[in-house]
């Protein structure tokens, strides 16, 4: 969440940004879904696998990029209780990537903070 706050270019902590998003969901009468226990595994020079727990199939999408302010590439997760698995491919070797996960249902809101990892050298 701290990376997310820094990316917004305002004086706020990660906690402040989390609370802001949760309050906006409440004002819009949307349910806040918890996304927990994010795990980045099997990092290679061209990809990785990301898993995260979700309370239900929230139609999750992983957004990824090489800048914490520009994560435009999308990967749709495969849901298998208790969460999602994202297979991230076509990355550049020896490069730092930033990502977050968000749901896309109209009546629910769920989002992670920003995570990062570096791909292996070729």
From TrEMBL:
Q: What is this protein called?
A: Fibronectin type-III domain-containing protein
